[in-house]
Specification:
Elements (H helix, E strand, L loop, with lengths): L12 H32 L17 H25 L4 H27 L8 E5 L5 E4 L1 H20 L1
Antiparallel strand pairs: 1-2
Helix pairs in contact: 1-3, 2-3, 3-4
Length: about 160
């Protein structure tokens, strides 16, 4: 392949283009996810949302919590589906596209929360990261750093496929 057909990180134009469209999907989906969380916080935490322990989900009725678990599962299905539809070569490429899309979605979820609510105030703020299979609580910096690593791993996988 000529130098003009190669982009940074050793990805070809088609892979780079696909990563761009997957990122666009992930950014849009992150906005939708963030707005749902904004509505939930307004409804169930009108005095402000602060994670002090994993029991904080007790403020949310069990019916709504069940719907939230379903929403999180549906999010993973959508991220996986768009990655599978985008990949053409093999399962490694599918995996790379999935982790890329998941990572961009996760980072932009927090960016959108900050844009809308000015939350989190800093990257050390605790958050409920996920509800599946149990409540995961950690500082916001953890999913952001892990997502950055996932993006690099995705690029390395794509470079090798």
């Amino acid at each position: 392949m000529t130098g003009g057909a190669q982009l940074r990180l050793g990805l070809d134009r088609e892979q780079f283009r696909k990563l761009g469209w997957l990122a666009a999907f992930a950014v849009g989906m992150a906005y939708v996810e963030a707005t749902v969380v904004v509505y939930l916080r307004f409804l169930f935490y009108p005095n402000g949302f602060v994670v002090e322990n994993a029991g904080l989900t007790e403020a949310v009725p069990s019916e709504v919590l069940g719907i939230e678990v379903g929403r999180e599962a549906a999010t993973i299905v959508m991220l996986a589906a768009v990655a599978l539809l985008t990949a053409k070569r093999n399962w490694w490429e599918r995996l790379a596209f999935f982790i890329w899309t998941f990572a961009v979605w996760d980072i932009f979820y927090y960016i959108w929360l900050y844009v809308i609510l000015r939350w989190p105030p800093n990257l050390m703020t605790l958050d409920v990261l996920f509800l599946i299979p149990n409540v995961w609580v950690a500082p916001v910096i953890l999913p952001v750093v892990v997502s950055g690593i996932m993006m690099v791993v995705a690029a390395v996988i794509l470079k090798r496929t």
